[in-house]
Design goal:
The protein is an alpha/beta fold. The protein is 29% helix and 25% strand.
């Protein structure tokens, strides 16, 4: 698990690329500069780790493009100490970004292989969410609700109602909705019954699957 000055230079360069694409949140850019993304992917892809690309990881999943991770993180407007539910731990890279933003993170992964791998790997890098959960993201985490922010890192064909109900008033849910390509959709809870909806453009994610695997 080596992290060299060369890797640091590549991270600095990646942060500049993301800034040029519209990522202006200083804390998000700082997280990108700090987190060793090359350690989150297969070593055969290491030379590409700091390009703005998605890559395959275990269990037919992907590690999202750095821009997508940064965009979702920036859009959530995370404040230190906020309670954040992440649906789809995946490689753990987005989890690490949330932790660098000083969030209290509860992360759900439904692929057992990925859950085992990431829940062992992240603490080795010093990243410790409040809880890692092996479970179904469609049902959220009722026993820890309400959450300040909820982030979904896989394409969902519809918006799961439990996730909306587990959001605090004033909270934000960010979810890519659609089948082949997804529309990044932000819900802001205005009251117990009212939500404000914003559509933020097209993205491509692996599908969000129901049930555990």
């Amino acid at each position: 698990m080596k992290d060299t000055s060369k890797h640091q230079g590549l991270r600095n360069q990646l942060a500049k690329v993301l800034k040029a694409k519209g990522i202006i949140d200083k804390n998000v850019l700082s997280a990108v500069r700090k987190i060793p993304r090359h350690l989150f992917i297969d070593s055969s892809f290491e030379s590409h780790a700091y390009q703005d690309k998605a890559f395959p990881i275990a269990a037919e999943q992907t590690i999202s493009m750095p821009y997508t991770v940064a965009f979702q993180s920036q859009t959530l407007e995370i404040e230190p100490g906020e309670k954040v539910l992440e649906i789809g731990t995946g490689s753990g890279y987005q989890t690490a970004v949330l932790l660098e933003l000083k969030a209290e993170v509860y992360s759900i992964e439904r692929q057992r292989e990925l859950f085992k791998k990431t829940s062992l790997f992240l603490p080795k890098l010093g990243y410790n969410p409040k809880r890692f959960i092996f479970g179904d993201g469609y049902i959220g985490l009722k026993e820890e609700a309400p959450f300040d922010k909820i982030i979904v890192t896989a394409g969902a064909p519809f918006v799961p109602k439990p996730l909306l109900s587990q959001l605090k008033v004033g909270g934000r849910l960010l979810i890519p909705v659609g089948d082949k390509t997804q529309i990044m959709t932000l819900f802001i809870r205005k009251s117990t019954t009212a939500f404000e909806k914003h559509e933020l453009g097209d993205f491509a994610f692996v599908p969000m699957l129901e049930e555990k695997n």
